[in-house]
Amino acid sequence: xxxxxxxxxxxxxxxxxxxxxxxxxxxxxxxxxxxxxxxxxxxxxxxxxxxxxxxxxxxxxxxxxxxxxxxxxxxxxxxxxxxxxxxxxxxxxxxxxxxxxxxxxxxxxxxxxxxxxxxxxxxxxxxxxxxxxxxxxxxxxxxxxxxxxxxxxxxxxxxxxxxxxxxxxxxxxxxxxxxxxxxxxxxxxx
Length: 190
Known about the structure:
It contains eight helices and no strands. It is mainly α. The longest helix is centred in the first third of the chain and has 25 residues, at 22-46. The protein is globular.
């Protein structure tokens, strides 16, 4: 499922949950958990920490933070970006507590970070969507699978019918093209 499809699915569910619908809240938590679990596993592996239980610990901290912070959600912002930002903060906190500096995370390649909630969140989301749409479909699908859904490069390459090396190159070039697109629009983060 692409990030845009996930956002389209989760946004009304989360808004219903905020209005008190317990079943909608459970659906939101189940759906976002699957997405964030893949992201956290990937980022911990990149930081040299591949223990599955560690990802589960950070996921549980993230879910608790989502619950406690749900009142901070701005309905004008993407719920997926809000959830990913909280997950990233919890991951950084976890790495700091365990003596690992968060600078070891390769965050410059995370496409979703460009849509992290801030004062320009609606514009950033639109710019991110435009930057993704400017890419060839195959590259867009690779970036979505690897950077947003948490799949491995090997899995994404297999799904696209490419070699792993070709997929890595396509993802790298796609992210560079997105950064160039966004910098031309004056929206690249400092």
